[in-house]
Design the sequence.
């Protein structure tokens, strides 16, 4: 996968402690997808407040998320 500007920024600046753990997790997620793995996202609370439907819809269209489980709060998204 080609690296976009956000991925490039994270790889360059997030090098220590918990920030480095984020880089490791992102690389693991990328490897998981490249190997045909499936992803489930679990959420609690309202999705509309942060407009999560916008980013989740794109992830679904790109086949990066197959299952979403949420509490059911504000399902108008």
Sequence:
């Amino acid at each position: 996968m080609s690296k976009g500007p956000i991925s490039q920024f994270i790889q360059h600046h997030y090098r220590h402690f918990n920030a480095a753990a984020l880089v490791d997790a992102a690389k693991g997620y990328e490897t998981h997808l490249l190997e045909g793995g499936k992803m489930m996202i679990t959420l609690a609370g309202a999705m509309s407040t942060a407009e999560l439907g916008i980013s989740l819809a794109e992830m679904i269209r790109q086949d990066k998320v197959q299952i979403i489980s949420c509490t059911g709060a504000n399902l108008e998204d």
Summary: The mean pLDDT is 84. The chain has two domains: 1-36, 38-77. Residues 38-77 form one domain. The radius of gyration is 14 Å.
